[in-house]
From TrEMBL:
Residues 333-526 form the ATP-grasp domain. This is RimK-like ATPgrasp N-terminal domain. It comes from Solimicrobium silvestre. GO terms for biological process: SOS response. Gene3D superfamilies: ATP-grasp fold, A domain, ATP-grasp fold, B domain.
Length: 547
């Protein structure tokens, strides 16, 4: 770890554990920063840090303005926890005076803008571009509604505390501020085939012209009237867990009653469980953990949520690696085969194979099951009984994927679903075939599904070899929460697939355990958070005294 340079004001020794304490607290849940929560009531002191006194634009006498050197060199004068700190230093580059001001403010449990995370994110386009896809989409929608206002192919917009003087983009400016809370941001737009955000950069107050300074003053006055709500000392909950769900999803992995159970049981455990949706993407860093209760896919916002949450240091279920592995049936089939897990006989088909399937027909008898690699809830799954159906169905499925899966058809009265969490079985369910159908879910032409009966089964009534095989299969993916779909055949247990996003429905999976099932899952989040916090605090070295 480098030492502070001679030009950095403080002369006393800093402890890196103190400087980075806020990061550790975010992981442990003792400090939660919510930039979206504002109040008209002034609940905290304001402090404005400038590198040069000439940089501050006098407007009123109630603001406390302090130089960066005084702020960094003071142990007590400017160290009141909960103070709202506006860092207006000329540079936030790594190890600059501005960087140290934000870092020390976080160590003092103050609410600083910009935070170290914001500074780091905006210094790496590869990081902040991950947050841009939804905003790019919104941007094109805005410009299409304002097509009568001609724009150049490139232009820039300044955002001061989430506000801009360009009215059509006022909402977008606030969204950008929610993602990257900084006093001054310059956003550059470009138009090629469509509009995109090319860059987002922090700006220097000393570079503003007279007109911009006037807008900045107005924006600051508005912002100052909305003191952030924050309570460091009296936090009611140990941890905050966000549950991502989609109220419009037809077949969600948890029904509304189950989601309510997670909230209720969480409250009993001292955990704040909050239901969030896709629109809350920019606020995910405010939580300690993310639990995805929406059907996952790679080219989907659920995967982006998992990636962002993981990069922010949250505990995540479903984690990105599990989503990546479980949502592709070809990967799963090969993983099981290589590791000696019994599965239906399987063949991977590409378009060039369709014209000659004689060898395949000799290996796998009709009926056969065809699957696209990333289907869910029986989507993209068909049963074929002869060559004609094979060829027509295969050609149709290959329009959606360059490879498809061919498997032998194994009929059983019901499928087993074994829930595995942290390499331990936590529940077992039986999913019966839909009436008059060969699958658990029968879909009509509109995509609506009719399910067969489902029931939870006490673990002591499940064949032990089936449970053991389920744990073996899940462990090949990771230590997260999985649902292993299996069939018990004459030759023994067979794994159909491993799901990263298993159903936890009130009235089905909790049929044996009741509230204990929700408690087990939430307590495992707590266990993971504690392990994470121990790892963070034990790895923090000392940093030497400033020269």
């Amino acid at each position: 770890m480098p030492k502070a340079k001679a030009t950095t004001p403080p002369t006393r020794s800093f402890n890196l554990q103190q400087l980075l304490a806020s990061d550790a607290e975010l992981s442990s849940g003792s400090t939660m920063l919510n930039l979206a929560r504002f109040s008209r009531k002034r609940t905290a002191d304001f402090l404005i840090i400038v590198e040069n006194n000439k940089d501050w634009i006098p407007r009123s006498d109630y603001e406390q303005v302090v130089s960066a050197s005084d702020y960094l060199g003071s142990d007590a004068a400017y160290a009141k926890p909960g103070t709202i700190v506006i860092n207006l230093c000329r540079s936030y580059k790594y190890l600059s005076i501005g960087y140290y001001c934000s870092l020390l403010a976080e160590a003092r449990s103050q609410q600083v803008i910009p935070s170290v995370k914001t500074v780091n994110d905006l210094s790496h386009k590869a990081i902040y571009s991950l947050d841009m896809s939804d905003l790019d989409y919104a941007l094109n929608g805005i410009f299409s509604k304002n097509a009568n206002q001609p724009l150049p192919v490139e232009f820039a917009m300044d955002i001061f505390f989430g506000m801009t003087d360009y009215t059509p983009l006022a909402q977008l400016a606030q969204q950008l501020f929610d993602i990257f809370p900084a006093p001054l941001i310059r956003v550059e737009f470009e138009h090629r085939s469509d509009w995109k955000i090319r860059s987002v950069k922090v700006q220097n107050i000393s570079s503003l012209c007279a007109y911009q300074k006037e807008i900045f003053i107005q924006a600051f006055d508005t912002f100052h009237g909305k003191a952030w709500l924050q309570n460091y000392a009296g936090k009611k909950h140990r941890y905050n867990i966000a549950i991502l769900h989609n109220p419009e999803e037809l077949l969600p992995p948890s029904n509304n009653a189950a989601l309510a159970k997670f909230v209720q049981v969480g409250r009993e455990l001292g955990i704040d469980v909050t239901l969030v949706e896709k629109k809350h993407y920019s606020h995910i860093a405010e939580y300690d953990a993310l639990f995805i209760r929406e059907t996952t896919a790679i080219n989907h916002h659920t995967y982006r949520f998992a990636k962002k949450a993981e990069s922010e240091g949250l505990v995540v279920i479903d984690d990105p690696v599990s989503i990546l592995r479980c949502t592709n049936k070809i990967y799963l089939a090969d993983l099981m085969r290589v590791n000696g897990i019994a599965t239906p006989r399987t063949y991977v088909l590409q378009e060039s194979d369709i014209d000659d399937i004689t060898e395949l027909e000799q290996e796998i008898a009709y009926p056969m099951v065809m699957k696209i690699p990333d289907g869910a809830f029986s989507r993209g799954v068909s049963k074929v009984v002869n060559r004609h159906e094979f060829e027509s169905t295969a050609r149709e499925l290959l329009k959606h994927s360059s490879l498809i899966l061919i498997q032998e058809y194994l009929y059983t009265e019901f499928d087993w679903r074994i829930g595995v969490l942290n390499k331990q079985v936590i529940f077992a369910s039986q999913y019966f075939m839909s009436t008059g159908h060969w699958q658990v879910a029968k879909r009509d032409a509109d995509g609506k599904a009719e399910f067969g009966m489902s029931r939870a089964v006490s673990l002591d009534k499940v064949p032990p070899d089936l449970l053991a095989q389920a744990v073996r299969a899940a462990n090949l993916i990771g230590d997260s929460l999985y649902g292993v779909d299996m069939k018990m055949t004459e030759k023994g247990p067979v794994v159909i697939e491993v799901n990263d996003n298993p159903n936890i429905d009130q009235g089905i999976e909790d049929g044996v355990l009741g509230d204990e099932l929700y408690r087990m899952i939430l307590q495992d989040f707590v266990r993971r958070l504690r392990v994470q916090h121990q790892q963070v605090t034990s790895s923090m070295p000392e940093i030497g005294a400033a020269a």
